[in-house]
Amino acid sequence: MNLSITIQIAKTHLLSKKRQTLVAMLGVTFGIAMFITMISFMQGVNQFLEDSALDASPHVRMYNEVNTQRPALIDQLNRSDSAFNVIYHQKPKEQLSRLKNGFLIARRIEQEPGVLGVSPQLSTQAFYNNGPIQISGTIAGVDIDRENRLYNLKSRLKSGTIEALRSNPNGLIMGNVLARKLNVREGDKVSVTTPTGGTMILRVVGTFGFGIGTVDNTKSYANLSTVQEILQKDASYVTDIHIKMFDPLLALPLGKKLRAIYGYYTEDWATANSAILAGEKIRNVMTFVVSMTLLVVAGFGIYNIMNMNVINKIKDIAILKATGFEGKDIVLIFLLQAVFIGVLGGLLGLLIGFVLSYLLSITPFNAGDFLSIKTFPVIFDLKYYGMGLLFGLITTVLAGYFPSRKASKVDPVSILRG
Amino acid sequence: MEKVLKASHFNKYFTEPDRFQVLKDVTFEVNKGEFLAIVGKSGCGKSTLLYLLSTMDTEYEGTLEINGQTLTGRSQDYLSKFRNEHLGFVFQFHFLLPEFTTLQNVMLPALKLGKYSEKEVEHRAYEKLKMIGMEDHARKLSSKLSGGQQQRVAIARALINDPTIVMGDEPTGNLDKTNTGIVFDIFREIAQENHQTIIAVTHDPDFAAGCDRVIEMSDGIIISSHENQV
Q1: In chain A, what are the domain boundaries?
Q2: Ordered strands of the B35-40 beta sheet
Q3: Confidence of residue A416 (pLDDT cuts 50, 70, 90)
Q4: Spatial distance between the Cα atoms of B4 and B191, rounded to a whole number of angstroms
Q5: What is the mean pLDDT of chain B?
Q6: Is the ipTM of this complex over 0.85?
Q7: How many domains are contained in chain B?
Q8: Per the database record, which ranges form the ABC transporter domain (chain B) (predicted)?
Q9: Which residues in chain A touch residue B12, judged by CB atoms under 8 angstroms apart?
């Protein structure tokens, strides 16, 4: 009963000053619309960068770190403090970067919970020759089906098929930028030379594009056995094991665990992409700071208008108090107005924010070869809309509360005596 | 005679700009159904006294008792509820809520009281408007009414909860002769027929002459209290 009367009074106040109500509402609307647009866009950018970086890199990569630093033999044998040993120009020992029992390890890792796929592979530096052109890059010998499971290669092929690689022992799937530089396309031949001197002529059966310059520029896939042949290694020679998880966050403890079990160096995606993750954090902070500023400005707008409203209505407040309305009724009357402005302005802001971010998501954007996007990346997530409405509501309630409290403290005697 | 209001030993000070005693040991009682006028020159403290009686001003010395309840030292919320139920006010400058219709203005205090359903409240508000001859203007915005009409609506609003006491601060101070007459007659009628008590501060000698009793104040003290022979 009491609530309905305060609602009725609040409604009448709002409707009698439509223009003022609208202006206050538009402040919130603008703030929230910008908040939605900015956060959708920023998160879209973050997600896109993260995806494109993580898609092309394994969650955990296991490899044998070749360490050329080693103590001299004589230092190990003769460590007395009195004598000192001088060795000039010590050569590093030859060390293979192979993973011993690589296939067995891969099979075992596959049994671990949460593992999406494991791909043992052989990766090496290589020169690609096509006539007089010589470009350095890397070549990875893989089981193409396993690799496809990890990186969804099929969807990234620009030409050719992965079946063609499987059926052609001398096939090669090449990064599309590298292929363009070499001026080769599907069906053309390329000579591949490894640092150890092995050379082989391979036929390009496909090209792929991850949308990441450093990969598309340098990398090619061949069959594992082919690369082993170029390097003149046996059939169990692998240098890397790439692991993908269902949940990327589980990769971090798994990496540590594998390192402890097998003694090989493991690198997880967070370490490998720490620059991207740091950038993401900074962008997040920026987004929130700007959005909060917008909302605070909107809040001050409401505060001003509600304050004016209270001053304009000071006689009405006095008369309401004289006829028996309590302080809390008065607070409620004005707070309800602020909440109404906040909710309606907020909802309108969500709508406008959605429209703006939709427009942004269909705006053409050419990022060149480095990023594989045609329009601005935007994320539509209900979470942000909920957050926008919540922040909008908190700001308006705060901005409305202080004037309302002032209103409730109006001394009716001083007003009514005139 | 039943007493509805007892004011004993009221002292009131203004502290701005200097400490100044407005009321000096004012003591009086009011009977049920009495039509009382408080008169005096400007600055004699009669309005101040009225606002103390209205419970809106709580900074005073002395004790106030209305309807057998001691109101001195009560919380603001309690006093709000008490005003809502037991007191009605009519001010010099009508003071209706301009965005509301005449009917809504009259209904508000009753809706706040919450004793009757909205339908009943509306019915009662119509009756009060009929009594003061304003039922034709019920649906009009109150800001569209003339001063005299607004003052009559304010009286209807003061009466909606059937208060024990109706207080008026110069209720006719802003009205012409005809409207003053109408307002006075309404007061007279509710005092006689409903046995509601009227306490009005007034400058108007004719208004005062028509009341049951006149209290005259000067410099913060009651200098005379006499009953009129009607």
Answers
A1: 2-54+276-416, 60-79+95-268
A2: B87-90, B165-169, B197-201, B35-40, B213-218, B221-227
A3: confident
A4: 13
A5: 80
A6: no
A7: 1
A8: 5-230
A9: none
